[in-house]
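In the lab's daily routine, each protein ends up as an entry in a very long ledger. A line of letters takes care of the sequence, but it says nothing directly about the fold. The three-dimensional part falls to structure tokens, numbers that each stand for a local backbone shape. The outcome of that step, for a single protein, is printed below.
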Amino acid sequence: MSNATTSPIGLAVYKGDWEGSQWTITGNPKREMTIREFESAYDFEEFVKNKINCEGIEFDSESCQFFAYANDKERAIKFLEEIEQHFKKVRDLID
């Protein structure tokens, strides 16, 4: 597996080394970066689905870890950047 990027939010983008693998966005969001505590990865996934453009993204979270998939590296990284930007706006509003 190769790591393409890591986010201070607690998520990272990886590409599996097996045939047919997609780009994976996974991890556990850090409360200090998201400003709120999510009960589970399912709750974080639902939040993301309601706030972020999820076109071209598939989800398969487990209760303890967020998982989303994209067909290409650019889309996976853009999706992660959109999540980061959303939470940066939230933190900026509080400061």
